[in-house]
């Protein structure tokens, strides 16, 4: 994204990412899957595969937010719970995303990261107790 110097180009890129996000199953568009702390509605679901990797699906009713959650899923989906917990999400600061979001969207971004890590922590606990379901 460093080749995109203009923030309008970056926003367009983020929107494009959101448009490529596979749809979340309607059964997960429930209050239990809503991320608290987001101004927009963001649904997040996670599953632990047989190989011990976490797979995320998500959706949002806001196009920018949908692009942001898409970026997070692209980076974190397909990794073990421990890898997700240890991930340094430096790209958020490197691309200047934090500083160009409104305070409410920045809080929403933090809430999304927190929820992703909560799923990873829960799956790590399940693995520690010998239950991969």
Q: Brief overview, please?
A:
By secondary structure, this protein is mainly alpha-helical. The chain has helices at 7-20, 63-76, 81-86, 90-94, 97-100, 103-128; strands spanning 42-48, 54-60.
Can you lay out the helices and strands and say which pair or pack?
Blueprint: H1 7-20, E1 42-48, E2 54-60, H2 63-76, H3 81-86, H4 90-94, H5 97-100, H6 103-128
Helix pairs in contact: 1-2, 2-6
Question: What are the defining features of this structure?
Answer:
mainly alpha, Sufe protein. Chain: A, 6 helices, two-stranded antiparallel ribbon, 133 residues, single chain
How would you characterize the overall build of this protein?
- This protein has 133 residues and is mostly helical.
- The protein has one domain (7-128): Alpha-Beta Complex (Sufe protein. Chain: A), CATH 3.90.1010.10.
- The protein has six helices and two strands; from the N terminus they run H-E-E-H-H-H-H-H.
- The chain has helices spanning 7-20, 63-76, 81-86, 90-94, 97-100, 103-128, and strands at 42-48, 54-60.
- Helix 1 (7-20) packs across helix 2 (63-76) and helix 2 (63-76) packs parallel to helix 6.
- The mean pLDDT is 88.
Strand residue content: 5-15%
| Mean pLDDT across all amino acids | 88
Lateral strand order in the biggest sheet: 1-2
Number of domains: 1
Record field, number of beta strands: 2
Rg estimate, integer Å: 15 Å
The CATH topology is given as Sufe protein. Chain: A
Approximately how much helix is present in the residues? Answer: 40-55%
Oligomeric grouping of the chains: single chain
CATH class: Alpha Beta
Largest sheet: 2 strands, antiparallel
What is the architecture at the second tier of CATH? Answer: Alpha-Beta Complex
Query: Low-confidence runs (pLDDT<50, min 5 residues)?
Result: none
Kindly name the structural category: mainly alpha
* Pattern of helices and strands: HEEHHHHH
Number of helices: 6
């Amino acid at each position: 994204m460093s080749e995109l110097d203009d923030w309008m180009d970056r926003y367009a890129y983020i929107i494009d990412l959101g448009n490529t996000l596979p749809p979340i199953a309607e059964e997960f568009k429930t209050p239990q899957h809503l991320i608290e702390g987001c101004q927009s509605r963001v649904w997040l679901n996670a599953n632990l595969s047989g190989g011990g990797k976490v797979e995320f699906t998500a959706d949002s009713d806001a196009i920018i937010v949908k692009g942001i959650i898409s970026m997070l899923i692209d980076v974190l989906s397909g990794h073990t719970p421990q890898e997700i917990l240890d991930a340094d999400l430096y790209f958020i600061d490197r691309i200047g995303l934090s500083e160009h979001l409104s305070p409410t969207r920045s809080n929403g971004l933090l809430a999304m990261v927190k929820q992703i890590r909560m799923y990873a922590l829960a799956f790590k606990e399940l693995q520690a107790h010998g239950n991969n379901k």
